[in-house]
From TrEMBL:
Topology of the protein relative to the lipid bilayer: Multi-pass membrane protein
Catalytic activity: an acyl phosphate + sn-glycerol 3-phosphate = a 1-acyl-sn-glycero-3-phosphate + phosphate
SMART domains xref list: G3P_acyltransf
EC number from the UniProt entry: 2.3.1.275
Organism this protein belongs to: Sulfurospirillum deleyianum (strain ATCC 51133 / DSM 6946 / 5175)
Task performed by this protein: Catalyzes the transfer of an acyl group from acyl-phosphate (acyl-PO(4)) to glycerol-3-phosphate (G3P) to form lysophosphatidic acid (LPA). This enzyme utilizes acyl-phosphate as fatty acyl donor, but not acyl-CoA or acyl-ACP.
Name of the protein this chain belongs to: Glycerol-3-phosphate acyltransferase
Keyword Lipid biosynthesis part of the UniProt annotation: yes
UniProt cross-references to InterPro entries, sorted A to Z: G3P_acylTferase_PlsY
Family, per entry: Belongs to the PlsY family.
NCBIfam families, sorted: glycerol-3-phosphate 1-O-acyltransferase PlsY
GO cellular component: plasma membrane
Domain of life: Bacteria
Amino acid sequence: MEFLFNINVQFYILAYLIGGIPCGLLFAKLFTGKDIREAGSGSIGATNVLRVLKETNPKLAKKLAILTVICDAFKGIAVLLLAKILHLEIATLWAIAIFAIVGHCYSPYLKFEGGKGVATGAGVLLVMLPIETLIAFFTWFIVGKVLKISSLSSLLALCALLSSSYIIHYDLEGIHTHAPLWIIAFVIVYKHVPNIIRLFQGQETKVI
C-alpha cells in the first residue's frame, strides 16, 4: 500500500473521485426532486438536465443545465490547477485530466455509470490546451446553433480539437505524444455510441 503515499497516485484518485461527482443529477434532485436518469437519454449531463426539466420548468431547466456545465468543467479544472501549483510533471497532469474524465463517465457513486465526459473534458483541456479548446468550443457553438443536435456538435468539436492540436502543438510539450488526447477522445466517443447509432438512423433528438 506504499504506492498510496505517492503524490501522483493521490492526485489520480482525487481526480477520479471529484470527477465522479454527478453534478447534473444532484442539481436536478435538489431543485426539482427528479431523477434525470429515469427520463430522456438517462445521462447525468447538462443536455439531459435541459431535456428532462424543460417539460415542467423551462427557465429553471436552462439555469440548471448551465450550472451543470460549469460545475462539470470545474471538477477537472480544480484538480489540475492544484496539481500545477504543486509543480507536478506534465505527464502527471495529463493523467489527472484522463482520470477526471473517466470519473465523470464511470462514477464510483453511480455504480460506474455516468455522463458523456464532454464538459469535464472541456474543462481539463482548457487548462492543458487552451487554444485548441477554444477552437473546439467555437465549433460546438456553431454546429449546435445550426443543427441543434448536442451529440453531433460535441463530436465535431472533438474532431476540431484533435485536428488543431496537431497543427498548433504537433509535439506536445513534456510528453511528445498525442496519446492522452486519443485516450480522452476514445472515452468520449465510446460514451456517445448510442447517440452515433441514433444519428445514423436519423432518430437523434434535437435540443430546442
